[in-house]
## 1
Amino acid sequence: MSASSDTAAHVETQNISFPELVELLRQVFLRNGTSPEVASVLAENCASAERDGSHSHGIFRIPGYLSSLASGWVDGKAVPKVEDVGAAFTRVDAANGFAQPALAAARPLLVEKAKSAGIAILAIRSSHHFAALWPDVEPFAREGLVALSVVNSMTCVVPHGAQRPLFGTNPIAFAAPRAGGDPIVFDLATSAIANGDVQIAARKGAMLPPGMGVDRAGLPTEDPKAILDGGALLPFGGYKGSALSMMVELLAAGLTGGNFSFEFDWSKHPGAQTPWTGQLFIVIDPNKGSGQNFAERSEELVRRMHDVGQERMPGDRRYLQRAKALVHGIDIPVAELTRLRELAGVQG
Amino acid sequence: MSASSDTAAHVETQNISFPELVELLRQVFLRNGTSPEVASVLAENCASAERDGSHSHGIFRIPGYLSSLASGWVDGKAVPKVEDVGAAFTRVDAANGFAQPALAAARPLLVEKAKSAGIAILAIRSSHHFAALWPDVEPFAREGLVALSVVNSMTCVVPHGAQRPLFGTNPIAFAAPRAGGDPIVFDLATSAIANGDVQIAARKGAMLPPGMGVDRAGLPTEDPKAILDGGALLPFGGYKGSALSMMVELLAAGLTGGNFSFEFDWSKHPGAQTPWTGQLFIVIDPNKGSGQNFAERSEELVRRMHDVGQERMPGDRRYLQRAKALVHGIDIPVAELTRLRELAGVQG
């Protein structure tokens, strides 16, 4: 580790390696109510987001995780129950625990089914997802598989044409292998903006672009604080994004047996922040698709996208940050690192 | 049939029943180079779009179908070859024919696999899709299944951040059963506007809303003629719609073995209008999803969408038109009906 200072914002930072950050976060989770299995999965996930520059899903989320655990809303020691219900269908009851350990428990069976049947589905229910979605799908593409995942969250998005919020931010993530580089991966909220980015803007005192949300009276606003204070988000892309958000509710909750975004009541758990819903995965083995090599075909698409002037592929910014972190480590504000060490019970 | 005149636009129309329109279009296709099997499938598809008010995919498309057939670009008598490649994976080589007969040929196997394995995929390659996508998915939902389909078309959309077009309009269609009414069905182009709607606006001399497309110089335009004359469309919803359009290329072409939207060359077939690409289906049996009844869960979602003020569900406008047509028949301009009868070789 080395100390430095961010001259632009005058925030003193300290440098930490990725493995050090994973271990620190693992200790934080372990000391705050999770099992060793859950602590390992969440620490890896959260540290990956921080490393890749997904700051709204990095260590920024730790207070939310911990207050949710402390409130008794989510079970940090839940043991997911994997159910094999068909040649291409796996279910998991996450038992009121986090979604990522449920995925980890079912993953070997899901991959085996996808490779033998050609496509497979994983339906996770009674799960809490409080992270970015891309870490869930990227590893499938690194194994040569194509993966799609959707997860619903909590009511904060007004359906197109409606007056009041109903949907969650309901992201869709997709990953596909390519022959000449890192997988093609996107992770997009079907809301016009992600909740985490609204929170970060509010913290900074920054305004948002128009079209992102409404205030508590249902009127358009560019003030993130007005959105968070009883307002709501809008779907991206008008009625189309709204239709996709509805699809996410149907797949991630309706089909899995999880809660819709409007169904759970956390009012008796002050501090609870993690949506108690469901998550769906569809994983395809592209080797069954045709006589052609899929990864070479996707590489050809990327090449042509560059040719017409698209310089950055979805995922590229994360890969760049990741490569930097591998060499230089991750810079974290000293105050945040100190707080994490306190939470982990380790000396600074 | 009965004759009437549309007083608003002073276009004289004639009334025809849905079965009469299907039969008329079947004769048109039969007399213009298709096999009886292909004629039946395309006639039903095209008449359904006209009946449901999807005018940009109804009889408006007939000249495009016929000029493509006449050019030798598409094989109207192709016999699709169905390949069973896994417990949940079916492929079809459409053999340079239309996509809908390929779907019809593979559909029984696809449904059987979805019901036994829980999910199944259908990868159609070397196919021409020149129709709306919702007629492909709606019937699955009427059987209690959840269906998703994507199809790529021809280069006409500029990827977000790029300078020149590459993607097709690349629609995504989704259908899910609901207990209390017609299935929830949406069919959305990942372009900001569908090609057919640009053509219809150009025909009418109407302008488009901003953000739909660019002219041949790559500059934003609201003139549909400028878009059609060497210009291009934009994706819906900025980088998010663009990412989804890319996903459609990867699934509908990369995975199936079909052509990407930029790969086929129809310059030696003047009159060719049908994109020679691929199409992907994912069909899920929601009965394997949880202990709950999916159709009742989706009905609950619809009820809540109505509660927050969304009056019209995706698909409702089509169902309303369909119900009207069942009672009153379909009004078609006399000039168009006369032309169809000439093409069918029948007396008016």
## 2
Amino acid sequence: MSEFKTICHTITADLKTGPDIRDITPELRGFVKSNGVVNGVIHLFIIGSTGSLTTIEYEPGVVADLKRAITALAPPDQEYAHEQAWHDGNGHSHVQAALLGPCLSVPVRDGALATGTWQQVVVINHDNGPRTRKIALTFTGM
Amino acid sequence: MSEFKTICHTITADLKTGPDIRDITPELRGFVKSNGVVNGVIHLFIIGSTGSLTTIEYEPGVVADLKRAITALAPPDQEYAHEQAWHDGNGHSHVQAALLGPCLSVPVRDGALATGTWQQVVVINHDNGPRTRKIALTFTGM
Amino acid sequence: MSEFKTICHTITADLKTGPDIRDITPELRGFVKSNGVVNGVIHLFIIGSTGSLTTIEYEPGVVADLKRAITALAPPDQEYAHEQAWHDGNGHSHVQAALLGPCLSVPVRDGALATGTWQQVVVINHDNGPRTRKIALTFTGM
């Protein structure tokens, strides 16, 4: 019989200038398989304050639509107080990422991700340049 | 003394055309009671990419206000790239659901949900038709 | 060797009229240290339906920018159906909090928070008056 465990892991994902959106479901499936976990939850947390995580149907149309909506939440061509101190041009990135949120918890059932057929786990880079994003994975369960 | 455990469960909720919002707090209370869990966290994850989860004071006014705000985030009468490929009329549903997010984690304390008195756990259907939503519940704790 | 455990704790944070944003990373660090936890996840849940949690780079510019974006999501000077029943002037607070969400899960690695260097955990008060916010913390791991 399986025993309760915590498994810690980190994945990285290369993303382009934000908003850029990448499917990390294959990496999660690989994590489930290589660790032989059966039932529980994978907690994901993106390290850094200009990235976020969510789920979408990962097809080019939804990706384009979501990018537009994210941009509308905090357009890069507005003025940001963050710029007045830092002048790094990514005030909008911070706001977008804070509104979407840095974490996600995905269930595992019978040794597989319990996501929908057309539901992929995605990482979003909101920053104003390409970034290699680090995502901390923590499995709790059996 | 209680032992550490993972309990997996699925609840379903019938919802109308989105945005529709339904209180699932009674189902969560039933889960806590029937499983005799005492302290820990219930992780909720909605299966499918046009649904989401959050908490609100579940009264008709807030429900109406939140529906309006959700619609403003991604109005159905805009054009969506998702439509060009799929023509299923729910491009806005995908964007709304991605922005709100598919998961929620609710604490359990002394055998009860540790939510506020006027804070209910709700599932939201964003799709352009009625849907029976499946929500995966995973308890970790004692 | 460490054993699997669940640790429950509550922190409180005094906040001004919303949107007000406060860094609670020091409290989380204190929790990690005083409990000697090493690897796992801290689940945070704000009790009440007019507060939320996220992460930001906690500097005055980002704080100001995020306040503006939150206000734009649900401005206090719009009409809200919640007001017609309750007349407590915080219809916008409920909508803002529901969109941002009440929970957050932060990883712990090697006895420290695995957040970014410029990424702080913040609690947000959306209500139309000062509030002492209660946040339920649940650690699961070792």
